[in-house]
Amino acid sequence: MPRFARSPFAFAPADAGDPSASAAPRGQSESPPEAPEPGTSPAELPPALASVLIAGRQPHADSPNYWDFFPRTGRHERAEQVTDFYEVRPFPGYAVSETRASLSDRLGRSPFLKSLDGGVPARARVLDAGCGTGQLSAYLALCGSRRSIVSVDACSASLGEAAGFKQRAELDHWHLLRADLFDLPVQERAFDVVLSRGVVHHTPDPERATREVARRVKPGGILVIGFYESLGRLFHRMRMRVCQVTGKPLSVLDPVLRRKDLSEDQREAWIADQYRHPLEVLLPAPRVAEWLRSEEFEVMRSVPPHAEGDALFTHSGAKRPGEGRVRLGWLLAGPRDADAGLVFLIARRRG
Ligand SMILES: C[S@@+](CC[C@H](N)C(=O)[O-])C[C@H]1O[C@@H](n2cnc3c(N)ncnc32)[C@H](O)[C@@H]1O
């Protein structure tokens, strides 16, 4: 699910404005990560991380890039396929030349991400569930040095990329964990803000994945969950059908592929992710909202729409956010939606 610089979420596999940016599959990347996390013995867990771990959970033996809680057996076959997919395509790609300043600048150009940063308190504990290469986490870490950010993903290659940037940017308050969403090593009700962008629809059980993630939010805390919405992604499903018939995607139907400024790597990354992903389940927003309500959440708003300066962690005033005419809007926006049906629900846990 790469997002490119013109997307409202400015969620790029590489910076379209930076020709040196890489969206190359692993092995072709020019910025292999180095071991950044000093010491990996459980005794050396950073206190901020130790304080949110489930009692008794210990990382496996040394991994230089992340704390490793990944299950060695028993994963669902489809989940393994998804992890294998990302192992050769860590997502989203970093520019070879990515620095603290370039990443903050690039992501900060997205009104949505700016508002997200504006909503996350200065000393918040944040969980990014399914962080990929962790660009969203890194952005929040760069914007708030007193935040404690825990990022989890199943994919070691993506975490390796995250670790490389963490080291270069000296983000000691950002912690990387390898774990499965269905076996999270962190406590329930432990985080002020939980993010999960573009993840649950790539799991074999999106309802369970949503609930697992939501349960990590503490009472009064916020969940920001982004997923492929059934109506929002309908037009893209049609594009995928056409692709099956013709053997390749038709640029004329796809606003991202119509762009002239994409590198070949970026095009390939988009095509792989949008047309050849091994597992994608579309989710109706009202159903996701129901799951959240049954986990003690109040759904406050859906995105899009989102305008510059809109506060994200407040109630939009809509009676049923993400329902009715909003969904019709997502459906009709399909042909020109560079996010191809990715929508967000923002919800507050009661308590
Ligand atoms: C499309 S990427 C999104 C990355 C990131 N959230 C972002 O928005 O930049 C989806 C990520 O979900 C992760 N993922 C999928 N299923 C997972 C699971 N069962 N446990 C942990 N991570 C998972 C993948 O490894 C991948 O990095």
Give a structural overview:
The protein has 351 residues and is an alpha/beta fold. The protein contains eleven helices and eight strands. The protein has one domain: Rossmann fold. An eight-stranded mixed β-sheet has the order 1-4-3-2-5-6-8-7, with helices on both faces. Helix 3 packs across helix 5. The longest helix has 14 residues. It is globular. The N terminus is likely disordered. It binds S-adenosylmethionine. S-adenosylmethionine binds next to helix 2 and helix 5.
CATH architecture assignment: 3-Layer(aba) Sandwich
- What order do the strands of the largest sheet run in, or round the barrel if closed? 1-4-3-2-5-6-8-7
Question: Could you name the CATH class?
Answer: Alpha Beta
- CATH homologous superfamily descriptor: Vaccinia Virus protein VP39
Number of domains: 1
Average predicted local confidence, pLDDT: 89
- What is the string of helix and strand elements? HEHHHEHEHEEHEHHHEHE
For the largest beta-sheet, the strand count, sense and barrel status come to:
8 strands, mixed
The strand count comes to: 8
Strand content: 5-15%
Q: What is the number of helical segments per DSSP (H or I, 4+ residues)?
A: 11
Based on Cα principal axes, name the global outline. globular
Distance between the termini: 34 Å
Structural class: alpha/beta
Low-confidence stretches: 2-40
Say which molecules are bound, naming each kind only once. S-adenosylmethionine
Radius of gyration: 19 Å
CATH topology: Rossmann fold
Helix content: 25-40%
